[in-house]
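Pilot study result, target chain (809 residues):
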Amino acid sequence: MHKLKKDMARCRPLALRRLPLAAAIYLAFGSVSFAQDAKPADTAPAQEQTAPTLDTIVVTAQKREENLQKVPISIQALGQAQLEQQNVSDFDDYAKLIPSLSYGTAGGGVFSGPGFLQVYMRGVASGGDGNHSGSQPSVGVYLDEQPITSITGSLDVHMYDINRVEALAGPQGTLYGASSQAGTLRIITNKPDPTGFAASVSAELNVMDGGGIGNVTEGMVNMPINDHTAIRLVGWQKHDAGYVDNVYRTRTFPTSGIVGDNSTLAENDYNTADAVGARVALKIDLNDNWSITPMVMGQKQTASGSTGYDPSVGDLQVSHGYPESSDDRWMQAALTVEGKIGNFDLTYAFAHLKRDVDSEADYSDYGFWYDTLFGYGTYFYDDNGDFINPSQYIQARDEYSKTSHELRIASPKEHRLRFVGGVFWQEQDHDILQRYKVDGLASSISVPGWEDTIWLTAQARQDRDEAVFGELSFDITDKLTVTGGARYFRANNSLKGFFGFGDGYSGSTGVAACFSPEQFHGAPCVNLDKRVKESDSIARVNLTYEISDTKLVYATWSEGFRPGGINRRGTLAPYTSDFLTNYELGWKTSWANNRLTFNGAIFRQDWDDFQFSYLGQNGLTEIRNAAQARIDGVELELNWAATYNFNLSGGIAWYDAKLMKDYCEQTDANNMPVPSCYDPARPFDVAFEGDRLPITPKIKANLTGRYTWDIGQYEAYFQGAVFHQGDRVSDLREAQRNLLGDLDAYTLVDLSAGWRRGSWTLDFFLKNAFDKRTELTKFAECATLVCGNQPYIVSTPPRTLGVRFSREF
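Predicted structure:
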């Protein structure tokens, strides 16, 4: 009897793996047979029907409403219909659809889980970003008019009731500022509408191959209060199923012979996440010219486990002996005031973001590998002088706040000479607390006042930005337009507090390096208090020629920047601003009476003295200004309404991102790399001219085909989408890259099918239909040359079969 139960248990995973693929085949062939058998309700001759066309997409990328096909920049817009058709619910879903976008997922301090996004565009990536004392992001992310980018990454906004996503590739610094060095990502919500009542609900159930069962519930209601006032309420609840197993394993520390195990935490599918959130917006039209739109949006997400798995343990498996979790709570309050002064448009945008994250993470690889390679275990003992398990784990609390104001004015867009100009002010504050703990640690070697704490970080970081910006456009002829823009900025960034060991453990760092007895956030003293101030300007010039009403070409020269900052290791000099210069030729074209659009851009970007973050001594992030890099690229996008029933859309990007000079980790007194430092005994210090930049593939592409048809009173569809990403390198430096290994290329397939009748819709979807293991990123728990012997891989979730019911009211 027991043997029969075991045999049945073994069969269940196999059956589950086959079920989604069988469902996909059924949907695919079933769709074909339905298409053959169904008789369309409208049997009018084809010549009497209106020709199929593509929808016009209106964007606000240049701070005014414009037809996407008239905007002379490389911009991809995903409208509400496309977001819904692709079953987009979070960043991972829409990132696949934007060829210029790449990202890392293991940043955000100590926890390798959901909620922390490191976004990159056009290959402008050096790796290692996302630490709380690291560089500011190179891509700005906006929710409507308000920035939602913090030091450790941007918010992962739940994608329900979203009007569109705009991805602006290339430097957008003149209009969007410091964190838009390489591009800008804008999430535009649906606004309250006083013209009528509307509501919708959606419920989803999904199951992962070899993983757990997830669910999503969403709802929206738009309620007019009177003819000029409306409120819009949006809410969601989401459970992400786990798929990484924490399996039982023992680990023996060579110095002491102590054996550790993870028996208390071993669990299948342990990387789960639960989120609940809401958005409330009010729109008041004071008169025909002025409106006020306040909005509050917030979310609470609790997650456990790690999305990264350890291939040395097994497929989608780790063996961790200490808790891994996060409790992430954020709220953003925003206010947008829009009006007219004469014929000029005036806009004021305010936002305040508050985010608190409590997290804990396994850090036991640090102790094991330092013990294995350097006999590290001899330094860890209890109050009796006996050896203890040197494994570390991290408990952290991060408190963020971000306040921004923007006031701008724009002249009428139909004027031959027109402008947009304004002022911007922003302040970001980040209180950092991290305890690196070892159970049973002797009080004499703990950080004073912090039991079992071998290392303590207690710091406050502040980043302030002020800017004046503007763009001026002039129609030289009715077909030729020149635009010039500039931004003058000032940055004032500081970092103060304590970091390091107790004085009983180290005679040079931590307490031993304190210069002030002031207690700082509970830390015993202060050993870091630095500030860096700078000011500079950037510019942009664009020339646009309209060949016809449906075709234009443009040429752009533009600059982007990131401010400098303070290194967490106070003995290092501050890092300075880095600048990106972009040379671009592009085109926007519509063909066949707007049945086909073909857009593209060819560009070269020079990235000077770029900020390079990496884990240095003691696992501390260090930021240095590296050498020069160059990114050459081509971006293409195609949308085709082939027939009334069939639409095809896709995009492809090709990048050649590489170093133009050798990079040397050794620096001079100004924290700038020395010209050459290659030493055969220290090959890990360098990267060489011609080496690829990390994270970004040479090729990223997607293609989606959607076929719709009528079955009686039902409208049915079948959709297939293919996503390809080329291979990437994992680290800028050669030795570290060789240890971690490159990130392999992969191709994913998503399938979906469904029916709609009147106000309700039933969708079936299959994500990652062929259950591919992908390598989105690789990381190690400590410095790569030590912990890189045990790398972790973050992969796309396994094949997921889901069903969703939606209803509009």
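One observation from the pilot: Residues 1-49, 106-110 have pLDDT under 50 and may be disordered. A full batch analysis is planned for the follow-on phase.
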